[in-house]
Design brief:
Layout (H helix, E strand, L loop, with lengths): L1 H23 L14 E6 L2 E6 H30 L8 H23 L14 H13 L1 H15 L17 E6 L8 E7 L6 E4 L5 E2 L7 E5 L7 E7 L2 E9 L3
Antiparallel strand pairs: 1-2, 3-4, 4-7, 5-6, 5-8, 8-9
Helix pairs in contact: 1-2, 2-3, 2-4, 3-4, 3-5, 4-5
């Protein structure tokens, strides 16, 4: 119990420090006329800093993400304590929450500034209130934010179907001949061709495909499985397949 109390106090302290930092580093409004100064000076517990406006936004975004994450952590912690369902294995999760919130909020901010989300703005002077609100919500709902980033990634890059990685930039095999050309289940068949080391499975007509490993680039040995019937031999590379031009005869 004392450990749980200390954890709760630690989370609350981190949230308060982040709140004070958000107030201390809040960017001043740009002047109505003329250019804004290139840097601004800030003091955080006697720590003097000089930051550009872009650096200020990165700081307040990270701090807002920490605040949102700490709100999530404190709500979750109080709920599990009240239900007597808190386990010690969750302690690292709560300790890492502020780091997760800060990093995730920063990534979302960069994505927004790049204009990769609907309604995003790429202007040089974003609204600090709107950016901080989004960052705090990202920290509070980190799972949903991660799913949104996943959707952005899948929009930018083609989504790979299951098994698709196995055939990328791999030359497909070919069947020149097989020996013998007929046989009963259990018979070993030697397949000759090219690029046979990329073959993952071999199938005979009427039977399920069996995993194989080629003897060499030009030779592959496989036993005829039970249930095979007369028909072409099929070589599989991931989800892709190649059929023999000639049928294999099963008596």
């Amino acid at each position: 119990m004392p450990g749980i109390v200390i954890l709760g106090i630690l989370l609350a302290a981190i949230a308060l420090f982040a709140l004070y930092g958000l107030w201390a580093f809040w960017p001043a409004s740009p002047p109505p006329t003329g250019a804004a100064p290139p840097t601004a000076k800030f003091s955080y517990f006697n720590w003097q800093l000089s930051l550009t406006r872009d650096q200020q936004f990165f700081v307040i975004v990270a701090l807002a993400g920490v605040i949102g994450a700490m709100l999530h952590g404190l709500r979750s912690l109080s709920r599990y304590i009240g239900e007597r369902y808190l386990f010690r294995s969750w302690i690292p999760y709560y300790i890492l929450l502020p780091l997760v919130g800060a990093i995730l909020a920063t990534i979302v901010y960069v994505v927004l500034r790049a204009g990769l989300l609907p309604g995003a703005s790429t202007t040089s002077q974003p609204d600090p209130y709107g950016i901080s609100a989004i960052a705090a919500l990202v920290g509070l709902f980190s799972a949903q934010a991660a799913e949104k980033l996943k959707a952005v990634f899948e929009t930018l890059f083609t989504k790979v179907e299951p098994g698709g990685e196995a055939v990328t930039n791999i030359a497909m095999p070919s069947i020149a001949r097989f020996d013998p050309e007929h046989g009963a289940p259990g018979t070993s068949v030697v397949i000759s061709g090219t690029n046979l080391t990329s073959v993952t499975k071999v199938a005979f007509t009427g039977a399920e495909a069996v995993p194989v490993k080629a003897d060499s680039e030009n030779r592959l040995t496989v036993s005829i499985p039970d249930g095979a019937t007369t028909g072409p031999i099929i070589l599989y590379v991931g989800q892709e397949s190649v059929k023999s031009d000639k049928d294999f005869t099963v008596p």
